[in-house]
Riboflavin synthase (Salinispirillum sp. LH 10-3-1), 204 residues
Amino acid sequence: MFTGIVQGKATIVKRVPDQDLVRLAVEFPSGSVDDVKRGASIALNGVCLTVVTQQGNQIDFDVMQTSLQLTSLGVCQEGDQVNFERAMRAADEVGGHLLSGHVAAMGRITKIETLGHGKMLHVEVPEPLRPYLFSKGYIGVDGASLTIVDVTANGFTISLIPETLDVTVLGGAAEGTPVNIEIDSQTRAVVDTVERVLAQRLQS
């Protein structure tokens, strides 16, 4: 599990296709992964991945075709930066909301507005995700726990404070940039339950 509080930006230094997967070599900031062990979970742009090997600040991950097709890791290239968060521990403070690292789909930034020192991002998402969007609800965007400002016809808007712009890759995003979307699990459970109950009543 993850808290959605991005711990920083890492850099993809090597991308090697290997049959049905891709091996990513990722360089992390000094001191951020000193105690990481093989088999540990780290989220990259909100995608939960398993540590395969480590050498200093560089960690290798294997990414399967499903993740490559469903998330922006499929289009990331050598030199690109990604958000990272290490798996939470039992005693960690949950400053955002719980994320699983299981991305639902990719969205796309369609418009960026400057708001003083911050920014407002308009994000378009696939139609199947839109029933789970609620004003003031939680959303995971590239692994960052964010609050939806408003729901639009094809997606939602989020506002980013300077800290978020500085710590995450969203600060350097442009219009057209793909972003990984994770729906809040509690929101998904409530919506799915209500829809199932209503469907059963209509059939009875």
Notes: The chain has three helices and twelve strands. The two ends are 39 Å apart (CA to CA). The first strand starts at residue 8 and ends at 18. The CA atoms of residues 69 and 92 lie 32 Å apart.
